[in-house]
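Changelog note: in this version the structure field was regenerated for every chain. One regenerated record is shown below for reference.
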Amino acid sequence: MKKIAFTFFVFILSVTSQAQVQLLHTFDGEPSLYGDGIMLDPFPDHQSIYEPVDSYVVLFEDGIKIYDNNFSLLKIIPVSVLSPLFNCADNTFTPTSFYFQVQAVLGRHIINPDEKIEMLLSIWAEEVDEYGYYHHCTDYIIINEDGELIFDFQHYVNYLNIHKAGNQLRMAAWTQGYCIYSLGGNYNPSTMVTYTQPSSSLNPYPNPSRNTITLPYTLQSGETTQLRVFNMSGQLLETFNVGSDFDKIELNVSDYAKGTYIYTYNGVSKKFVVR
């Protein structure tokens, strides 16, 4: 009898445990997170701010669709509305095809104080010329849920950071350089989330250097990530796959031009100088 009772208890426990995770909905497109808002940035002095939204922003081949938290379709931004927004500064051709990606959902009150969802969108455009060569360019823009253009970077954006400076919201974007913009949104601590970048007390050495420099990093046990090296124009120079088995890499900078560089991993950034 005890064995039967125990078996029944295990069965009930198993059913209860399995019931903790239930499939609610499946998207056929490529969804952005439920108000994700963060593009990890290499500026640890700034805390990233974003505002969760009660909607799912989903990218489909025919455009962007926005659903509420009950998965009811609220709005559609068709490709025909998005394509004319492309305005890359390096564009010297007439694009024949476009590819879109929702990079981040920032919130509803970050850029403008209205109630419309704001999102960062990348547009990859290309054409094939008469000789069969591909030409392409990438533009990053901020739009609202109606497909209205809020801001055009006209360049590739490596990192984006929304932060608070006094009572003002500001945006740091690494495009052709480290640019700071003022924003018209309203900072409300009750609706916005502050994300603090991980930090590390380890610094590169010797710094400056003209031959080899040691780039230290700190990871949790079993963790892996990418360590990337940029110049001050935001150009990615090198990428290394690193893990917790080691705590540094040796970088040969003998072929680097004199100047300041940044290496990043997991949102941590450190500067070093090549002389």
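Spot check on this record: Residues 212-274 form a domain with the Immunoglobulin-like fold (CATH 2.60.40). Helices lie at 2-18, 79-82.
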